[in-house]
Amino acid sequence: MVQPHLNGHQPASIVGTWRRFGPVGPVYQVIGEGDALPNGDRVMRVRVVETGEEVDYSLTKVLDDPREI
What we know:
mainly beta; single chain; SH3 type barrels; globular
């Protein structure tokens, strides 16, 4: 079941997309999906372009960040 706060997005559908941390933050690529969280959110794995660092980031935060083209 899709959680209402995810606005119908399936986590796999955003893997491979590029986004920015907020309006002026660094660009990152969504590279994978992780476990479901107790609050109904999901962990997503992202790679920060500037540093190559890979970090976990919540799906709801990813969906709030602007897309990069």
